[in-house]
Amino acid sequence: MYRVIKVLNNNGILVYHNETGREMILLGNGVGFGKRPTQQIERIPGAKVYSLVTRRKDQSVLKTVNGIQPGFIEVAGRIIEEAEKVFQNMNRDILLPMGDHIALAAKRAAENRQIPNPFTPDIRVLFAKEYAVALRGRDIIKETTGHEISDDEVGFITLHIHAGLSDEQVSQTLDTTRIINEGIHMIEEAFGQKFAEDSLAYTRLMSHLYYMVARTRNGESTKVDFNDFIFSNYPRTGKVAEEVCRFMGRELKKEVAREEIGFLAIHIQRVIDPDAV
User: d(Cα 241, Cα 231) in Å, to the nearest integer?
Assistant: First the structure.
């Protein structure tokens, strides 16, 4: 059973779930029609159920919901539905944070303002499937508000979608992307090359850097050691990989495992010379 806390609009209600003691949002065509606060209701067939979190732990769900126009919460719900068509396990807790961001993105689009996201190209490579869903989200936002958000805003929405697939907060994923971006620049400068972002080797390098950061944060190891092979055959690449690992260790405030050097160097060598390894 649910107790209605607030009717958002005809398609959404904020409720209290009596069995779990949690506040939730129910979205679906007509779910709010005829409902009133304090009303006890059964489960509604076809309604999507969203458990809720807020950006700030000291802020109530009701206060957060009151700060977002219901239409943007609906849009976030529709984007989550699009994501669920692609991904099997999607955490719906991202509803309010993403709805809040969409509201701000639409406002910026209406005012012809943009918030820059210098890591959009990296996000597009690292989280290609999530980015594709976010592009669909842009269509939904335009259809709903009449305003088209920028590619950089699509990048930010991608991070929200990724947060629904992982234990990472948006801020942590953005920081990981920044670290990877700087690591890529270090490698490009060391070899005097600008890598082709649409190449398979580049995509694999980016993916490897992402999981290398994750392993380091979690204190995990690759259990694969290519160091002797790399420093014997590609000493310069090994040196660059070592410098990148040292940089990432400083940024993460955790030492990157020694085995990561050779593993990273393999991916670097494949980018700078695809036929080498």
Answer: 10
